[in-house]
Every structure is written in structure tokens, then in C-alpha cells.
Sequence to fold (299 residues):
Amino acid sequence: MNHTAPQSGSGFYFAFGAEPSPQTADRLADQVMERITTDRLRRARTAAWLYALSTALGAVLLIPAISYTYSFAVDSGFSDYLSLLATNGADLAGSWKAITLSLVESAPLVGSVLVLAALLVCGFCITRLVSDINRLKHYRHAII
Amino acid sequence: MQSFKSLSAAARTLVVVCILLVLILVFWAGSAVGYRQADFAFRWDRHYGDMFMGPGSPFGMRPMRGEIFQANGASGTIVAVNLPFIAVQSPNQTEKVLVVGTSTIIRIAHAVGSTTDMRVGAIVTAVGTPDAQGRIIVSFMRVMPFMSASTTPRW
Fold:
């Protein structure tokens, strides 16, 4: 490390009354860096746990959301209209307005929004979790 | 977000206006569809007694269940046939009356069908337009072949 003499207004100079030796300064810098890395490691670990829990929560919510959407689509006839469109699409040319309105009226909008929200939460949390795990590995490496 | 900030003021205004237009369109479509559904549900409810218990039924108006349902289609099991009227019960236990006319296209899967193919227990999917009596004038109907609600699952 390249050490320069402290300025007359330096806190270290006033506190200890002498210029620190290069070894002391190195040790101090190492201790500070270790402290910072340990603190970052702790924060990354907490964040990783939180994201892991959020991912699990999102996955748990995803199951009833899909189940609700599916049962709504069956009960409202949405799946039947889709099937009608897929199998008899050519015959429905004259009834395009009726089939479009039927699909819109029976669409499981709330369920779709719930599924989409759960998927977004899961996707976001998994991305952040992977990033935090990589950071954890990096900090552990730095401490060792 | 960064790319949005890098746009010029005019382009940003245009993007915001487009988003607002899409939101207004979605809101308008939701209101229009909801109004049609509510109108159909009201008419269906008002004529429920006449449709299912005969004209002048003492039960008359059926208590509203506070729900709205599709006005342009029905899918479910045929519970009664009295041509040109067909009563269909949906999986959510709602009965609707379908009116089958000469212009109605009937299919048994892909094959051409007729009104004689409509029997109690058959599974149908129909689309059409609602009338003032809370019925649906069917323009297209598909009858699922060899299926009965009591013996075969719907999927």
C-alpha cells in the first residue's frame, strides 16, 4: 500500500499523536474490509432467505390460482367455446360476433390475473434469489 | 424505463396517450359487455317462471341470485326439448332457454346435424344473440356425439 503522511487536520494524527505504521494501517484496512464483507454477506443471506420464502409463497399461491382459473373456465363454458372455435372455426364465420362475445363474457379474467401475478412474483423472486446466491458465493470467497 | 426516458417529449406523450387509449378501450369494452350480461340476466330472471313453469305461473319472477352470466352463448346438458325451445343446464347450475330456428347451423362434432339429434342428456355448446325474453336465439350449435352428462366426463 502506498502511504502518505497525514495532513495536519487528519483525525488519526490527532487521535494517536503519531503517523501509523504501514502494518497497522494495513491491518486496519483489512479489518474494515472484512467487516464490510461480513456485513454484505449477512445482508445477502437475509435477502436470499426472504426471496426463497417469497418464491415458495408464490408457488403455493400459484396452485389454488390455477385450480380456480381452471374450474371457472370449465363452469363458465370458456373451455367449450375455445373448443368450439378450434374444431368448428370455419362454420362459425357467420357467428363471429356471438363467439367473440361468448369468449369475452366467459373468460376467467380474475383467475388469469391471479395466475399472472403469482408467476411474476415467482419469476422475480427466483431471479433475485439466484443473484443473491451468487453474491453469497462471492463474499464467502472474499472472506476466505 | 431507461429507454422511455431517452425518448423525446413528443414520443413520450404519444406513448402515454396510446396507453390511456388502450385503458379507455378496455374499460369501455368491460362496461359494454357487463351491461349486456346484466341486461340479459334481468330479462332471464323476469321470464324464468314463464319459461320453465309455463305462462302465467304463480311463481312468476324468480328471485335474483345476484349474478350475471353470458348473454351470447350457453354450454351444458340438455334438460328439456320442446322445439323450437331447448333448455340447457350449465355446469354452474344455470338453466337457459335456447331458440333453434331454420337458420341455426347444427353440427354433431364436424358432421351436419338436425334438431332431431337434440335429446335430453346430450351435451351442447351454442352461441347466438339474446332476445327480449331472456332466451338465446341460436346461430350455431354443436352437439357432442354419444355423450351423456351422467356417464361421461365433460373433458
Q: What stands out?
A: The mean pLDDT of chain A is 82. The interface with chain B takes residues 74-77, 79-81, 83-84, 87-88, 91-92, 94-95, 97-99, 101-102, 104-106 of chain A (CB under 8 Å). Helices of chain A lie at 11-16, 22-76, 78-87, 96-106, 109-143. The CA atoms of residues 101 and 107 of chain A lie 10 Å apart.
